[in-house]
Amino acid sequence: MTIQIGDRLPAGTLSEFIETETAGCSLGPNNFEVSELAKGKKIVIFGLPGAYTPTCSAQHVPGYVAQADALKAKGVDEIWCISVNDAFVMGAWGRDQKATGIVRMMADGNAAYSKALGLDADFSKHGMGTRSQRYSMLVEDGVVKQLNVETAGFEVSSAEKMLEQLG
User: Fold this and answer.
1) What percent of the residues of the chain are helix, what percent strand, and what percent coil, each to the nearest 5?
2) What catalytic activity does the UniProt entry give for this protein (predicted)?
3) For this structure, is 25 an active site residue?
4) DSSP code string of 79-144
5) What is the residue extent of each domain of the chain?
6) Of these residues, 3, 45, 48, 56, which one is catalytic?
7) 37-52, pLDDT tens digit by residue?
8) Is 41 helix (H, G, I), strand (E, B) or coil?
9) What is the pLDDT of residue 1?
10) d(Cα 81, Cα 48) in Å, to the nearest integer?
């Protein structure tokens, strides 16, 4: 079943490559409980099929990097990009996209979280296995307030669309 507006985010873990060691976060991949990260925060989450793929690299991530200040001005605390890749790839892609410190590049290495959301997709015919659908959502204190799932192409999950929805 696909997550809906009004639903609480499912329990699960995402990984993030940490560039600088801090108290509680070691250098390299760190695992985070989604429910703990989302507690008390307004978060924009966008999911996409894969790191370094054409639309994801040319439009989706750059749009959120470019609009980060505008989203934060609307009360957004954090922006997450979730993709079915490992934390090393997500960290490298984040550096390549100049997203470090702007968008949290969250790895869903085995697609477990994408499946829990009901937003997984079978990309086997492209040799990519199980991936994430392309989507965006606004989450407040762990509850989905907006959900935009692409049916084809890249139209409803952009940063600009999310800014419109934030008013």
Assistant:
1) 30, 30, 40
2) a hydroperoxide + 2 glutathione = an alcohol + glutathione disulfide + H2O
3) no
4) EEEEESS-HHHHHHHHHHTT-TTTSEEEE-TTSHHHHHHT-EEE-GGGT--EEEPPEEEEEETTEE
5) 13-166
6) 56
7) 999 999 999 999 999 9
8) coil
9) 83
10) 8
